[in-house]
Amino acid sequence: MSGYNFTEIENYWQKYWAENKTFKAENTGDKEKYYVLDMFPYPSGAGLHVGHPLGYIASDIISRYKRLKGFNVLHPMGYDAYGLPAEQYAIQTGQHPAITTERNIARYREQLDRIGFSFDWDREIRTNSPEYYKWTQWVFIKLFNSYYSGQARPISELEDIFSKHGTNGLQAAQSKELTFTAEQWNTYSEQKKQEVLMNYRLAYISETAVNWCSPLGTVLANDEVVNGFSVRGGHPVERKLMKQWSLRITAYAERLLNGLDTLDWSESIKEVQRNWIGKSIGATIYFQFATPAIPANSANSATSATSANSANSANSTNPTNPTNPTNPANPANPATTADNVPLSLEIFTTRADTIFGVTFMVLSPEHPLVLKISTQDELPKVIEYISWAKNRTERERQQEVNKVTGVFTGTYVIHPFTGKKIPVYISDYVLMGYGSGAIMAVPAHDSRDYRFAKKFSLPIVEVVAGGNIEEEAYEAKDGTLVNSDFLNGLKVKDAIKKATEFIENKKIGFARTNYRLRDAIFSRQRYWGEPFPIYYKDGIPYALKENELPLQLPEIDKYLPTEKGEPPLARATDWTYSGYPLETSTMPGFAGSSAYYLRYMDSQNSEALVGKKANEYWREVDLYVGGSEHATGHLIYSRFWNKFLYDIGLVVSDEPFKKMINQGMIQGRSSFAYRLNHQSYKEYLQTADSTPLQLATSPRAAASTSPRAAASTFPRAADSTSPRAADPTSPQSTSTSIPIAPIFVSKNIPNREKFTDPVHVDIHLVENDVLDTDAFKKWQSDLAEAQFITESDGRYICGYEIEKMSKSMYNVQNPDEIIDRYGADTLRMYEMFLGPIEQSKPWDTKGIEGVFRFLKKYWRLVSGDEDIAIPFDESEPTAQELKIIHNLIRKIEEDINRISFNTAVSSFMIAVNELSEIGCRKKSIHEKFAILLSPFAPHIAEEVWRMLGHNETVTYAEFPKYEEKYTIESTFDYPVSFNGKMRFTISLPLENTVKEIESAVLADERSTKWLDGKTPGKIIIVPKRIINIVI
RNA sequence: GCGGACGUGUUGUAAUUGGUAGCCAAGCCAGACUUAGGAUCUGGUGCCGCGAGGCGUGAGGGUUCGAGUCCCUCCGUCCGCACCA
Q1: What is the ipTM metric for this complex?
Q2: Which strand B nucleotides have any atom less than 7 A from protein CB atoms?
C-alpha cells in the first residue's frame, strides 16, 4: 500500500521553510505588495485550541495564494503579551509574569509552527518587550503633546495662541469650555498654565467617573465592561470618581464615523461602530429659570467655566462640527448669578420640533445644579432621591429600566415661546454622561417621558399628529405639527429645521451634534502593562523626552496594590525620574495593540516606530482577519491611533485596515454533570439493586430538550440558589486564572428536583471516574453523601451544551491531538471545510475523516498505487483531463477571491475523485493541481511538487492560468419544464437557435407524453439555461 | 424595545445574477476485497408511494413562464445596542 506519511512530510517541509526563510518579506522590490494580517493572540496558559487557527488558516491561504499570483506578501505574527491572566497568576504564585508569558509564547510558537503557517517570523513582535513598548510610550508622549483642531497639532502651538489671543476664536477639542484673554493667560502661573493645557491635550489626566472593578483592583474601559460586569473574569464593576489618564478619542468621532464608508468591512461591524460612536444631530436649548429662589444677578465671571457647561462630558463639545461654536460668542451662553448658579438650564434635544409639547424638564440626579436649584421645601426629598439613585447599582438600573422614579425640585423654567412655567424634576432615566445631563420632556412623543408623565400625572400635549397619545407616545418622525404656533402644518423634518432656526435667531440655543462615544480611559492600576513615560513635578504631570525611552517596567516584590491602595508600581524602589515621582499606573491592553500593524512593517527599526520608506511601501493592511468581538475596542482604538499618526505625518494612510474578514468562533461541546442530592441518594440506595433510577434516555436527549443553552447560562452568586434572569454575557472569557465557575441549568432534565445544580466536567475525567475539579471538591464537602452517577453505568446524568471554548468549561479541543492523528494539512482543510468562515460552529470531529480520506486518496493518485513511486506520464493530457484541471483552476481562484474556502475544498475533492477515476498520472496536470492545492495543504503540495521533479519550494510557483477553451462544451443538457416543473433533460448543441431548440424539444416523444394532447402555450427558452413550456 | 443576520435532508453544508434544490462530506443501509487496516472499493440513502407519480428549502400570502433566492405578514434562532433625549 502507499502510505501517506504526513508526519514525515510535514516535519520535513516545516524545517525546510524555517531554514530557507521561505516566507521572508523584503520592504522593497518590483512586485506589488500585499499585507495580510491576523489579530495577534494573547498567549494564554491554555495554549492554542482549534478555534484560534481558523482565521490564521484563512489568512494563510490568502497569503500563499497571493505569493503564487506574484505579490510581495507581508504576513507577520506576534504576541499581545501584556494582560491580566499573567498578572493574576503572578499574584497567586509569585511567578514573574514575564516568565509565564515567555513560557506561553514558546508553547504558542510550537503549536503555530506545527500547522504550517507562512509567517515571516523575523518580524515577530511582543508588546511586552522594551524595544516594542518604547514606541507605545512614544505615541503616548506625542498624544500628550498634542491638541486637536481639525487635526492633531503640537500643544506648543496652543500656548502660542493663548499668549496672543487667549481663547478668543479658539476651535479645539476640550474637556470643558474655558474662556480667558491673552492678558489673563500671560499672568497665569506655570501650574495654572499646565492645568489649562490639560484641558486640551489628546492624552490628559482628569478626575472622571470610571468603571472601577474592585476584585481586579483596576479601572476598565467601557468596552471592557458588559452589563455591569468585567469582560475578563465577570466581576462586578462600579462607577467611581478617580484621577485617570484618558485619550481624547472623541475629538476624532466624526472622522472615525466618516472613515467607515471607505472600508471594505462587513456591514454589521461597521454598524456596531456607528452605534458606538452614536452621532446625533440636534440642538442645545437654554430654558430660563423662573423661580425667584435664585437671586437675580447678572454678574458674570468671564474667566470661569460656565456651570452649565462644566456639567458636560468631554464629548459635548464638537470642534469638527462647524455649526457648533465651541466658544460661542453666543448671547445664549448663560450668565450666572454671583454664586455661579446659571440663569438658565441647558438641555440637548434631537427633536426641536416638539418644543411646544414640552410639559416638564428632567435633570439627572448627578447634575451639579440639582442641589442649587431645589427649593427649601423639596430639598429633603431631593437629597433622599439622589442618595437612593447613587446606591443603585449599574445593574439594577439596567434591569429595572421600566421602573419610573423621580422627584420634583420645586423649581420652574420658562418656556421660551409660550412663556409658561414648566416644572423641573430629577430622575435617573436621564443620564449625566450624555448631552448636558438634562432634557426637555415631551411626553406625547417620547416613551420614557410618557411613562414619567403618567406616573406623576403631568400633562401630555400632542404636537405631532399621527399617533394616539391616549395609548402611547407617538415617536415616529412622520406626521404633521399641531398645537405648535409657527410650526403648525409642517412635516417633522421641516419643523426641526425651522424650530432650530428660530431658536438660533432668538439666541436661546444653537444647532449641535452630540456623540455617544466617550473618551477612552487609559490608566490601569496594574503591574503587567506599559509604564507611562510621565513624572510629576509639583503635582503636575510632565512627559519624559523621547530619547529617554523606553521607560522600563520596574521589578517589584509583590504584584499587588500597596497598603495605601496605590497601584503595584508604587512598590518599586526608586520609581522616580530625576528625583520626581513617576506615574504608577500602567497602560491598558489596547495600548500595545493599537499600532502593532505598523511595527511589523519595520520591526527592527530602532530610530522610529516605522520608517518612512517601509511605511510608504506597505502603506496599510490589505486584509485583516480576526474576531468581530473587537469592534468597539481594538478596532476603534487602532483607527484612532492611526488617524493621529496620520495627522502628525508618521504614516501615509488614514485608515489602517482596508479590508477585513471576521471569522466565526469554533465552539466547544462542554459536558456537565449532576449529582443526586442527599434525599434522592438515600432513596436511590434503597432501590439501586432492582431498579436503576431512570432519568433520561441519553445525554443527547437531555440536551435537545433544552436547546437554548446560552439562555440558561448564568453566573452563580455565592449565596444564590435561585436561577436569575438569563445573562449570556458574563462568563464570556475565562482565560483569567480566577474565573467564577459558570453553572448551567437545563430546565428540562427529568426529576430535576432530585439533583444538585449541574457543573462543568472534563468528560475524559468523568469517563475515568476521576473527578478533580474544584466544583466537585466543593460538592464532596457540601454533600458528602451525594452520588455522582455516570452514563456508563446506565444510571447516569450528563448533559452537554455548545459554548465558547474555554479551559474552565473543559471543552477545549487542542489542535496538537488532531495533528498527531491526521496531520496539519488535514486540520487546515477540515477547518476550512466546516462551513463559511464567518460562521460560528461547534467543533465536531466526525467530518474530519472525510478530509483525511481525500488527502490519502490524492496521495495514492500521485504516488502510484505501489510502494515505489512510479514516474509521471509526460505526454499531452487528454481533453478530459484538461477540462477537469481548468474547471478546478477557475473554481479555486473564484472561491479564494470570494473567501469561500469550504466550497474550494469540496472542488478539490471532486477533482481528485474524477482524476482518480481515470487514473490520471499526467505530469502537467499534477503540477497545476499541486500549485492549486498548496495554499490549503502546503506540506503535501510541496512534497508532490518535489516528486514532480522540482528542487525549489512551490511557494513562488506561478498560479496556473485558466483557459476557457478547455472547459467549453459543445452541447448543453437542457432541463425541460412543463408549467415550471422539471420533467426531463435534453442534450442539444450549444449553437442551436431558440427556434431550433423549440422544434427539437417539441419533437421529443417525452414532450408528447407531458403535453398529454394539449397544445403548448408560451414556450420560454433561455439559451444555456432552461426550457419551460406553459400549457 | 431598537438595529442586523439567518432559518434547506439524520448532521455539517452547496446552489456566485430569479432558471435542474440537496454539490462535497458525515452518518446510516447493502455488498466486495483482504496482507483484518486508525484500511480500501462498489451501490443506495430528502419525504410519501409497489409503481406511475405526488410532496418538499420555518408558516401563510404575493409577484413571475419559473422563487431557497424578490415583496408582504407571522413564527423561531443568533448577534449587536440598550433609559443616548
Answers
A1: 0.94
A2: 3-5, 11-16, 19-21, 23-27, 38-42, 54-55, 65-67, 77-85
